[in-house]
Amino acid sequence: LNDATTTTKGVVQVGSGLEVSNGVLSVVGGGGQKRYLSANRSTTDQTINSLNQRVIFNSVEQSNGITLDTNTGIATIPAGGPYYINFEIGLDIATANSFMHLGVYNEDNLSFVSNQRLVINSPRTTNFNENSIPTLTLILPQSSTQRRIGLRTALIRTPEGSIVYYAKSSKCRVTIFEL
Predict the structure, then answer these.
(1) CA–CA gap between residue 80 and residue 165 (Å, rounded)
(2) CA distance 106 to 121
(3) Which of 14, 25, 72, 165 would you label with 111, given CA atoms 20 to 30 Å apart?
(4) Phi, psi for 153 (deg, rounded to 5)
């Protein structure tokens, strides 16, 4: 955050986004409420077994100004920002000795929005189950146009010939909010 810019009549304004008055912190600036989305994968697990496959978050918990297509997992983020994005991916891994990279994909120009990847590795054992919840966090820069993003497999490999991961219901979540 920027340093405090003004102090007037007991009010300290920090940058253009936070204000403290009488001990109360509130979000201000930008002419309105910040945009956000919180969604998860609910009801059923999703089989993930191919390159460029999208993880589908199919249940919106809360949103304001950011939409999610629960059939495709694509979030539409309006112009503005920057935006904080966090993915939590709880997986069961059915294929031993395998690995997968997940990345945030720009669905409009068919490219990854960042070089950051979430890397999931399975050891050289059979029936390994991953119950920890790895996360991928990034800042989507400010933009004058809307963007449509999804979380996709960027790399998926196994020497066994076929690979199966399961995106677990209630263990996969996406959170996006405007900074």
Answers:
(1) 35
(2) 25
(3) 165
(4) -70, 125
Report d(CA 135, CA 68) in Å as an integer.
19
**Cis omega before residue 78 (within 30°)?**
no
The 8 Å CB, 24+ separation contacts for 16-19 are 17/179
Task: Give dist(CA 65, CA 137) in Å, integer.
Answer: 20
Q: What is the DSSP letter of 127?
A: S
